[in-house]
Each structure stands twice: as C-alpha cells, then as structure tokens.
Request: fold
Amino acid sequence: MKEALQALCESFIANRDTVKRVYKMESDYVYPCCANVFTARGLAADEEKLQECKRIIKSQAGIFSNFRGSIEAPLACMMAVGKEPEQKMALAQEYYGLLKQYFWGSEYLTLVAVLLTDLADRLTVDEKIARGKEIYQRMKKEHPFLTSSEDSVFAVMLAFSEKDDDALIEDMEACYRLLKEKFMSSNSMQTVSHVLAMAEGTPEEKTDRLIRLYDAIRDAGGKYGKYHELATLAALSLQAGDVDETARDMLDADEFLSQQKGYGVFGLDRRTRMMHAAMIVSDMLSPNDQTQAAALTGTLSMIAAQEMAMVAIIAASSASAAAASSSH
Reply:
C-alpha cells in the first residue's frame, strides 16, 4: 500500500472512533461519513471541539429541528473543521430560512444550508438558491417520480456550475441514459448523473470513465455496489488518473478496512466497506483546499461531487436505519 494511502486509512479509522465517542448512538453507516469530513481535509477530529459543536447545535436548534436527528453528527463534523462553529451555525440557520422560501424543509435542506456557508456570501446566496430551484423544477419535469427532497442538495450545488441550465440538464440526461445501459437502479443513476454533470467533458467520456473504473475493480478481484454506492465511485472517477492503479489502491484500502473493528463478518457489509475505500482513495487524490477560493478558481465541480457523494451516504444510512427500526 502507498504510504500516503496508509496514513489516510489510519486517519479515517482514528477519526471515526473519535466521532463515536462524542455521538455514541448513531448508525454505524453515519460514523464513516463523519470521519471522512476530517480525513478529506487532512485533519484529525478533536473530541473537545466536536463536543463544543454538539453543544452549539443543541443550544440553537430545538429537538424537532431539522438541524437535529440523523443529520446532526455530520453537521457537527462539518462545523468542527472550521474556526468559528458558532458563527457557522448561525449563518447556516439564516441560509436555511432562505432555502425554505424555495424548498420544503428537510434534513437534506439543512445540509444544503451548511454547504452554502462555505460557498456563498450573503450578497450572492439568494441568487444561487433561486437558480437551484429552477434546476430542481427541471429535474422534476424530467423525472417526476425519481426527484425527491434529497435532490434539493444536488440542485443547489449545480447552481454554482458555469454551465447554463440547458447544458446541465442535457448533460444529466445524457449521462443518465448511458448509465442505464450498464446499471439498473433508476434512482441511483439519477444521483450519479448529478455528480457527473458538474464535471467537464462529454457525457460519453465521463460515463465511460466511471464504467471502466467499476470494471477494473471487478477485474482486480473486488466487487463494488451498483446502487447508492455508485455516487462515491463517480466522484472518484472524476479524479482518478490511471483507472487500474486507482482500482488497486481501492483494494488496498479495502483490505486495510477489512481488518478493522466495525467491518468484517459482524460489521458493515463488503459493498459498504468498498464504498468507504473509494472515499479514502478520493481523499488521497483531492487537494485539501476545499474553500470558497478553491471553488471560484475552477474546482467547484470536484468539491460538489465529493459533497454529493457524502449526501448519498447519509441518505443510505437513514434508509438503513429506518429499515432496521421497521424490522423490530
């Protein structure tokens, strides 16, 4: 395993365990997502700062607020990577109020509000939200039964693209059609098409790269999921150099994770573990500078793709938790 990848794998597990000490009762699917908020930025989770962010959320948001519930732990982590978590929380609530003028309130909308605190200032945020609503309505027109509240995140992120709305929709639809030739899940393919639409290149180039990476993992002896996991692989495919080398890196990361507590026979399943391996390899290939300045210099598509992949993981964890509750 590459030295840099080894270090990231170790950081990922250490960060996961730190988050678990602060948020003891969360779904096992949420902790890796939280861990990656720190690992992607080259940071070590600080238990004291996480506790501070947890207190801020509880003091500023009531128990029935969409800033609480299953989204709270990831939000606390996103606040903890900054220098002024209290101000970030206040600004996120202000942006959430603006978002609710265009979208139905939800935990996903809470996440949009927090993302916007890093990407938009008060002078431009309303314009971006309004454009996001237009994009969302066009998504809904194309796929009325597939488009749901989680797509509000994607729509607002897509509003930061330099492409015009027609180009974005055409790109998404072309990617969707091409992906459906390879994969079955319509809902998952819609999410993946959102991720790919943020990047440069033709739909054929982007979908081909994703499919080649997927096949390279299989040819190297791995097995990658075909459903919600694919959003993460799509983000990685946009960054990867040689797909065979990236596939090998993923298998190395997967092997490391298989030996850690929380994975293996009684832990998370292999497809989820491989998705986490993709997250870590993506971290290795990404710049740590995920600031507004980076976004404005042309890396927004990569930032948004990674955040979209995180949203897909949160969505999957929420669905898994709901399924587990209904089975009891």
Q: What stands out?
A: Confidence is low (pLDDT under 50) at residues 290-302. The two ends are 41 Å apart (CA to CA).
